[in-house]
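If your schedule permits, I should be very grateful for your opinion on a structural question. I would ask you to consider whether the tokens describe a fold that such a sequence might reasonably adopt. Thank you for your consideration; the sequence and its tokens are set out here.
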Amino acid sequence: MQKEYKTLSSISGPLILVEGVEGVKFEELVEMTLPNTEKRLGKVLEVNKDIALVQMFESTRGITTEGTKAKFLGKPLEIGVSEDMLGRVFSGRGIPIDEGPEIIPEKKLNINGAPINPYSRDYPNDFIQTGISTIDALNTLVRGQKLPVFSGAGLPHSPVAAQIARQAKVREEGAGEFAVIFAAMGVTFEEAEYFTNEFKKTGAINRSVLYINTAADPVVERIATPRLALTTAEYLAYEKDMHVLVILTDLTNYCEALREVSAARKEVPGRRGYPGYLYTDLATIYERAGRIKGKKGSITQIPILTMPEDDITHPIPDLTGYITEGQIVLSRKLHQENIYPPVDVLPSLSRLSPTARKVTREDHEGLFGQLYASFARGLEVRDLAIILGESALSDIDLKYLKFANDFEKKFITQGEMEDRSIEETLDLGWELLTILPRSELKRVKDEFIDKYLPKKESEEKKQ
């Protein structure tokens, strides 16, 4: 029989000290019974001899050192998983909130997961189509990759996240089923409703699992939400052979929750007040993406974070960049020009995209280099025009300026419900290259220019 302790010595924010405990383990679940018989859950954060520090998943309001009993349950926080979770909406603690029936679990899993042996990891190399041109053509997403989106306050990262979740697909024949796990942390009620309604309205809910933690929910719950999502993803990927895309938004709210708990523990703060173990903690989330040798399924991760004051050197995006394989950066300037999605092409990067570009279409690699270089030159010319005026530009400079303008209006810009195939995206890129003389197309092979550059335009340029 499990012991109940009445030896609560202090309560500070979400943290409670329990003295005189025996055999208590790190991450063990704790059930607190209040004087009014209400029960609340917490977990062991630290053990020192016979003193346990407990972190509550719910508010500590009403909990008193006198009359409250603590029962240590001898197991970590677990989630019951099943394929029936697809199409359902859960709270940040894994409780159904969509008025559907309780999930009958096939098994219960520890939400902290198990580290993947690096030797067992398989190299990510299969293309995932998001239907967004700036991602598919220039920052190609690969199955098993972790590719974060760096946004800012007020930028449309929520519509971008919803669009990726709706449109993402694995195009490889016989690749198996595709599923999306969507975890929202610390979002407003309006955002939570937006995500839920968006998934239901488009039918994407049928292949998705949603975890919603709102700003009104306990801060500590925010720390568990991404782990619940990733545990569900691991079950679907490695036991049900699905290809799972995990979208986590907003990681900044998660890090703020870590900082709040760290401050309550009176830990020595690191950069900007965040705990010194922020890098390690983020790695325990990001490194759960990947492919495992001998397993058909895969986990691909798109964490979304808002950079405080649009500062890319802030600890959260800075550390995220070290752990993940690139970043998609959203631009406030493009957003102010009503360009959606406002992807800032030049600082965005996908380190694994060269492997994916080999399997999309033969011209993808060269076209990527040509579009990127031409757009960069066009932006330089635009800056020059501001200083000297357009009258001082050469004919070729004017063509690059037109290319940059059209690239933003036609290639970067697309509708929230517009799902472009990779072929449509690449053809659009070739169409834009007709603005430039053939002699400027130095990064694509002549055979591909002959094959893909719109014929009428290419013939005029030859003449």
In short: Residues 457-463 have pLDDT under 50 and may be disordered. The radius of gyration is 25 Å. The chain is about 35% helix and 25% strand.
